[in-house]
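FAQ: What does the model actually see?

It sees only this:
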Amino acid sequence: MTLLPTGTVTFLFTDVEGSTKLWERDPRAMSQALSRHDELLRNAVEAYGGFAFKTVGDAFYVAFSNAPQAVEAALDAQKSLLSEEWEKACPLRVRIALNTGTAEERGGDYFGPTLNRVARLLSAGHGGQILLSHSTQELVHDELPLGAGLRDLGVRRLKDLFGPEHVFQLTAPELPASFPPLKTLDVRLNNLPIQPTPLLGREREVAEISALPRRTDVRLVTLTGPGGTGKTRLALQSAAELIDEFEDGVFFVALTSISDPELVTSTVAGALSVSESAGRALKEDLKDFLGDKELLLLLDNFEQVVDAAPLVGELLSVCPGLKALVTSRTLLRIYGEHEYAVSPLELADPRHLPPIERLRHYEAIGLFVERARAAKADFSLTNENAPAVAEICARLEGLPLAIELAAARIKLLSPQAICSRLGDPLKFLTGGARDLPERQRTLRGAIAWSHALLSEDEQVLFARLSVFSGGCALEAVEAVCDAKGDLSVDIFEGISSVVDKSILRQEGSEEPRFVMLEIIREYARERLEAGGGAEEIRRLHAAHFLALAEQGESRLREPEEATWLERLDIEHDNMRAALSWTLQSEEPELGLRLAGTLWRFWWMRGHYSEGRRWLEEALARDGRASAARAKALEAVGWLADDQGDIDRAVAAAEEGLRISARAEIQSSVTASFIRMLGSAAYVRGDHEQAAQLFEESLTLSREVGDEWSVASSLLQLGNVSGDRGDYEEARKFYEEGLALARKLDDKALLASALISVGAEFLLQGDHNRGAMLNEEAAALYRERGNRGHLQYALDNLGWAALMRGDHEQAVALHRESLALSRQLGDKLVGAEALEGLACSASARGEADRVSRLFGAAEALREAVGYQQEPRERALREPYLAAARPRLTEARWDAAWAEGRRLGFEESIAYALENEKLTS
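And it is asked to produce this:
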């Protein structure tokens, strides 16, 4: 692999001037021309030791370790390109720019300000021209190619707004001598301020924003967003990109220092150097000045003078060549306004980080790294600190101001230490640059500035909105924030105002949802606590989401199941917040009811462990015998049963039955407890006891008309009958249960029935019918995003693949089932999948692995108390028999013992990791 230059590097960038029009004119000719263009450039680059590390369309990005060689390559390439006889339809004109500096190299790509600057220098040039930065000129002026020279084009302001650049043009007899003026900020009148740092990322946003004023039907664009999202920097960069569009210039008007709307006219006039005439209103002089001009006004921080919005509308109406770009935390609400909502920076998921060479591409990560380097020159992103950097950016939700304030701490703290101190970001994130406005020197100040824009009642509403986690719908706001009608502001109008002030954002259109950044929510929580009544608002929040959960519970067994699963998914964070509050407050029964109501949702979505944690905590907080406790016991019992925790399932069922005997508990709940005990007996191999309990549950379910419970009991009886060898009785139970499941149109129950019947076919040796039924079950689960019990279908399909000799497919299915079992904490199906992988290993002749995996599975079953059926053992025996003779008895026993010692997590990790190497 070729090593790219490091340290001080000279970068050579190229592109074809006007390439878009050439493609539109003649795509065939352009394609042929570019092939020749690429050949000529590569020849020149390679001849002088350059490394083309990236090509994008017609652009070449090349790195040189030697600046004079880079200039030689640029001259040679340009001479070749200019002497080429291009087709008349595609006369390629290529511009070239060179800049020298340091850059970070990772994974065959470079990053850093040096590249940003050469890109901006390139955009200032013209086809046939070669431009050099001052840093490159310093290194090459005494070693220029024979006959070449340098023309000083002066100190120019590039469109990156990052300080001026002394620009030089390479001259040679073979190159054109004259070109139009450089496309820099100096060409048009402007007062755009130099920025202390270049803009990192945001290419898409700059392109979208600058495209709007180019449209003839757009006169006013307002950039909105909460404090710290980088509206001003985005607007400045967009204005710089637009400077060629406005003959009379681009002018920045800073409104930060004023709060009186009456001062806006004089502030705008001052930026334009318009003086007031004697005896005449300044506004009229301003109109006269702007009347015939093509000019862009950038009005920054308009939210504090928003009452002056009519002035902007008036100027636009009488000055046809005028356009305005505005930054504001609230809309101006004048005719013709186009809003551009500025979002936080792109984030990487800390739970699934890409390779480090790709991580730097994420805008939030890139910003943190660059600002950290400004504080500590030797800082770099490494495999050790990357997870902490990604976590910091994610917890700060991509908010540029917050990330910059955090990165400034790198001088004293490691990323890991910064991450550990973000529990109170409003307190920790302080100390911005002294030349920034006070409101931008702390995160709290930035949010407080937006908060001050709200009326008193809107501030109360804002504080109450902090109880919502993960956002909320309008009906939830009405139910929680104004339940007593004590807000004088209309909820809809109040929400609209808070959204307009950019401290709440709206998502969706048909059913809008309102979301706060977590950092802003933390500030709102402080205001709620300070204002009093916080506990009552949280009680109303919990009550509202309990009602929603109860409504959804019954719908999860109906045709609209998928819709309600999605709705509960969306509100899961609110449910969690409600549970957390109820379990810390004086409302334990509310928490018990909510946890008991949510268990079917948790089961269907595979949140087994989380559901059990909430339920156990709720049961511990409220020990009274009640219908709510019985329901919570039913929930925790079935979740425990699905994880193979049979002892807990039995304890829950027995306590539930004791409560049922002395409290008014629904008979269907009692039947569920009896069936739970039957399931425990079945797992432990007591078929007689299991059959008796399932029959009792079936009778009680029929008496109360609970068809769901009837179907479930029938399917369990079918399982018992099949294992007892009474296949005819099993068939009858299965047929009745399956028919009832289809009648009820409960997809989860139907899938469970298909799995049971399919498993019976497999055990009887009919792998085709067994696979068909389990495929239907898996499809039903996947269609609705259900994870609970999908592991059963996948495991059965794995055994079906084994039975037909398709070991590659068997491995894939058992791996998937095993990974899902780990996520769910399901030890029983996990043991089944381990043995499935062991059988595939036997087919490959890996006897040591077979013994370890069977040992691990045996230990898991013993821990659960599961008694494997003879028919199940018969499926495995041929593979065991084939593997045993490959090892000595001592080695076989030792490997088996090693497997038994692995434990649940360790055995799965061993199975999955080693399967990658052997499959």
